[in-house]
Specification:
One of its GO terms (biological process) is glucan catabolic process. InterPro entries: Cellulose_Degrad_GH3, Fn3-like, GH, Glyco_hydro_3_AS, Glyco_hydro_3_C, Glyco_hydro_3_C_sf, Glyco_hydro_3_N, Glyco_hydro_3_N_sf. It comes from Sphingobacterium hungaricum. GO terms for molecular function: beta-glucosidase activity. The chain is an alpha/beta fold. It is built from 20 helices and 27 strands. Helix content is 29%, strand content 19%. Among the domains are: 211 residues, 3-Layer(aba) Sandwich (Rossmann fold), CATH 3.40.50; 115 residues, Sandwich (Immunoglobulin-like).
Length: 787
């Protein structure tokens, strides 16, 4: 009898436990997210709370044994000892992670890996909290098999936010399909010194253009509501002013005043935050002596209180440790953790900045429990919003229909097409005839897959990436002979063969030479803990890499024997078409003076070779515009177009103006601007200026025109820029036809950060400048504010 009673009691208790486990409030999808978060938070230990704020490096968290993919012992140990809440770059593959096509993951394997990881979290941990997986995704998911789009500097050259939103949506779909729920990007840093190694990751030098592109990326990534199918949250980088380091040194100190910060560096982030961005990453640098990862004014007062940001803030890799390291503003690691979390930084990318240090800070009273809970609530709220608790797994069978589709390849080609900038076309050398008898294709970037893709790119299967040589061969007739000679490398001068290149050129009717730079990481390069490359100027092993994170420049000259090759080809007397593939503006002074035609393709992605050929042979009329100015010399730097008044005067040696200005780009056709009209609608408290004008295609080809509107505040209480982009639009105009452009300007576009440190619009005249580039004004007028 006694044994029967004990058995029944045990059965009742077991049954009660099962029912309880199934009906815990935080697992009840019918409750509000706030209710679920509150319930879960109340069940967590301090150790589990701290663990939720740790985002570890993810590529060692799975094991691949043949067809079997499982959670690795390293993951299990991290979960057991740190109670981790997030992983970063789990599916990343590149020389830094040492993941290759052989030991990395195909898209289908990636889905299996993330499911295995989530299954372990759900089934083998006390509370079953799923992980949030963050992935690099600035120009495609940085994983094997994903579509590779042009890098950000090329995306910005499209001046087409609607196309970039479509691209971001495709990237989100591919990332979501394999288990990623958070994409790192866009980078919203103003790049005003092209010596900086990460210029390629930026949208250029102008806050308005950057803001429009950033907003487009956020909308494409996230959709209308966080948690939508095939969507991921966006992480904005790097908050803030990271892109203007002194001397161009990546991660170095910056010198930015409060007014410049408010007027130029913060607005792109504000626009993206108000578009709904789910996450923001702090920058490595300091602002006026305060590291961004411990800046309460930046992370709480501005980001949350003023802009209404609702997501979570994540550190850049190891930046919390930088407080008691390189910055030396914290006494020890616990102090660094305390400074960061009090400032409003929620998540530690590395797992070493918070972890035991934050635990120590909480247990010793350095960090109050409420401060810890605040950060944990932000993370949990995002996980619930993303649907991770209700749908932690992905459909492994659906991956093939979502990743690297023909539709995405075509989209990559379209972005590449719209990003190409025609810098010069003397005597209409371009477009070339497809019936040329012989073409010489020469140069280190003419047939190099990885040099075409930029940094943050995974290994690629053979045949996936279309090079310029392949594009040209596909574009011309079968009767055309295409000769290819590499000629030289980007940097290495030990295998130069200019003589062979000259022989090929002498036999050709036209020479297409493809030069520039490279951000192609290799397995010979050593890397810092942050992932940036170590640069050794005395190293005997010379890769092509001269751009990409860590590869800062002291000059912008073409490296190696590239200029010597170009000069030798010019000496043949044959028409030369120069195509540049690169991540930053380079010195093209000699080319601009001596070469017939120049196309700038930046890093055009996997379909770039086909896109370049389309432009070369007239299948597409280029209309890309520069998002960053090209200096004539590094002695001009900084040379961005919207510098503060007064206007620059010339140097003794050269002009003050850049070689190619912001907004510049040519077409195979011509456009005329006319009929500028301003309709001013002004009340006692508001103003709208509708500015419209006519653009006619007066040339021989249909094509896009990118009309740009700049404003000049003629008299102001503080110094303002010599001009500032306020609106732009890219429109296709048929040959002989006209299109009317119309832009609305409001008070938000006219405000300045006043002497009293308040935003205001001042009465007075504003000059209107309209044209196809910042230095090519076709129409001018003005209006006056009287509020």
């Amino acid at each position: 009898m006694k044994l029967t009673y004990i058995f029944l009691l045990a059965l009742i208790c077991f049954g009660t436990k099962q029912v309880s486990a199934q009906t815990l409030p935080y697992k009840n999808s019918k409750l509000s997210i706030d209710e679920r978060v509150a319930d879960l938070l109340g069940r967590m230990t301090v150790e589990e709370k701290v663990g939720q704020l740790s985002k570890l490096l993810g590529w060692e968290m799975y094991e691949k044994n043949g067809k079997n993919i499982s959670a690795s012992p390293k993951l299990k140990d991290a979960v057991k000892t740190q109670h981790i809440g997030m992983l970063w770059a789990t599916l990343r593959a590149d020389p830094w992670t040492q993941k290759t096509l052989l030991n990395g993951l195909s898209p289908q394997e990636a889905a299996k890996a993330t499911n295995a990881i989530q299954r372990y979290m759900i089934d083998s941990t006390r509370l079953g909290i799923p992980l949030l997986l963050s992935e690099e995704a600035p120009h495609g998911h940085m994983a094997i098999g994903a579509t590779v789009f042009p890098t950000a500097i090329g995306q910005a050259s499209t001046w087409n936010p609607f196309l970039i939103e479509k691209m971001a949506s495709a990237i989100a779909k591919e990332t979501f399909a394999v288990g990623g729920k958070n994409g790192y990007g866009p980078v919203l840093d103003l790049a005003r010194d092209p010596r900086w190694s990460r210029t390629e990751e930026s949208y250029g030098e102008d806050p308005y253009l950057i803001g429009r592109m950033g907003e487009a990326m956020v909308k494409g990534f996230q959709g209308k509501t966080i948690g939508e199918e095939n969507k991921i949250i966006s992480t904005l980088k790097h908050f803030v002013a990271y892109g203007v380091p002194e001397g161009g040194h990546n991660g170095g100190a910056v010198s930015v005043g409060e007014r410049a910060l408010m007027q130029h560096y913060l607005p792109p982030f504000e626009k993206a935050v108000k578009a709904g961005a789910g996450s923001v990453m702090t920058a490595y640098n300091s602002i006026d002596g305060i590291p961004c990862s411990a800046n309460e004014w930046l992370l709480t007062q501005v980001l949350r209180n003023q802009w209404g940001f609702k997501g979570f803030v994540v550190s850049d890799l190891l930046s919390i440790s930088g407080l008691n390291g390189s910055h030396a503003t914290a006494e020890n690691a616990a102090d660094a953790a305390s400074q960061s979390i009090h400032a409003g930084l929620d998540v530690d990318l590395s797992g070493s900045g918070f972890n035991t240090n934050l635990l120590e800070a909480v247990k010793t009273g350095l960090v109050d429990q409420a401060v810890l809970d605040r950060a944990v609530v932000r993370v949990l709220h995002m996980k619930f919003s993303l649907g991770l608790f209700d749908k932690p797994y992905v459909d492994e069978q659906a991956v093939v229909k979502k990743v690297a589709t023909a539709e995405h390849s075509q989209l990559a080609r379209q972005v590449a097409l719209e990003s190409i900038v025609l810098l010069k076309n003397e005597n209409n050398v371009l477009p070339l005839s497809k019936s040329l008898k012989r073409i010489a294709v020469i140069g280190p970037n003419a047939d190099n897959v990885y040099n075409q893709l930029g940094d943050y790119t995974a290994p690629q299967e053979d045949g996936k990436v279309k090079t310029v040589l392949e594009g040209i061969k596909a574009a011309v007739s079968k009767q055309t002979v295409v000769d290819y000679v590499k000629g030289c490398a980007i940097r290495d001068t030990t295998a130069t063969d200019i003589a062979a290149a000259v022989r090929a050129a002498n036999q050709a009717e036209v020479v297409v030479v493809v030069l520039g730079g490279s951000s192609a990481r290799d397995f010979k390069t050593s890397y810092q803990a942050t992932g940036a490359a170590n640069v050794d100027a005395a190293s005997q092993a010379i890769s092509d890499m001269e751009s990409g994170e860590g590869f800062d420049r002291s000059t912008l000259d073409l490296m190696g024997d590239q200029l010597a090759l170009l000069k030798a080809l010019k000496a043949t007397g044959k028409p030369i078409v120069l195509v540049t593939i690169k991540g930053r503006p380079l010195n093209l002074n000699w080319a601009d003076e001596h070469v017939s035609a120049i196309l700038d393709a930046w890093y055009p992605g996997q379909e770039g070779g086909l896109a370049i050929a389309d432009v070369l042979f007239g299948a597409y009329n280029p209309a890309g515009r520069l998002p960053i100015s090209f200096p004539r010399s590094i002695g001009q730097l900084p040379v961005y177009y919207n510098h503060n008044k007064p206007n620059h005067h010339d140097y003794i040696e050269l002009r003050a103006k850049p070689l190619y200005a912001f907004g510049y780009g040519l077409s195979y056709t011509t456009f005329d601007y006319s009929d500028l009209q301003i309709d001013l609608n002004e009340s006692a408290t508001d103003l709208t200026a509708t500015i419209s004008f006519q653009v006619k295609n007066t040339g021989d080809y249909g094509g896009d025109e990118v009309a740009q509107l700049y404003l000049v505040d003629e008299v102001s209480s503080v110094v303002t820029p010599v001009k500032q982009l306020k609106r732009f639009e890219r429109k296709f105009i048929k040959k002989g036809e006209s299109q009317r452009f119309s832009f609305e300007i409001n008070l938000e576009d006219l405000k300045l950060w006043g002497i009293d440190k308040q935003w205001k619009v001042e009465n007075g005249k504003f000059k209107v400048l309209v044209g196809p580039a910042s230095d090519n004004v076709k129409l001018t007028s003005e209006f006056e504010v009287k509020i």
